[in-house]
């Protein structure tokens, strides 16, 4: 595999055999997993989604993930814990 750096190919016959990296792991920290609010607690949306996903999996095991997410979205719009609830 040849990577293009600027106008030159890395590892080409130009005499330079430098390897490039896409990001520096020591300067940037990537968060993996579930997002949390700045206080470290789950948001109302995250709490609702985790509870509802578990309930829907139990009630409708044959549903695809896409269908469960569509149903959760519909339910969230009407949920009392939703600060932007549609009335």
UniProtKB/TrEMBL annotation:
Domain Coiled-coil residues, every copy: 41-84
Bias (Low complexity) ranges: 11-28
Compositional bias annotation for Basic and acidic residues: 55-87
Record-linked CDD domains: HMG-box_SF
Disordered: annotated segments: 1-87
Protein name: Coiled-coil domain-containing protein
Organism encoding this protein: Rhodotorula taiwanensis
């Amino acid at each position: 595999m040849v990577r293009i750096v600027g106008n030159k190919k890395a590892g080409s016959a130009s005499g330079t055999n430098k390897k490039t990296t896409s990001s520096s792991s020591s300067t940037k920290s990537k968060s993996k997993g579930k997002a949390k609010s700045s206080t470290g607690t789950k948001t109302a949306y995250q709490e609702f989604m985790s509870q509802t996903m578990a309930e829907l999996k139990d009630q409708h095991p044959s549903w695809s993930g896409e269908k469960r997410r569509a149903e959760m979205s519909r339910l969230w719009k009407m949920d009392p814990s939703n600060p932007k609830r549609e009335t």
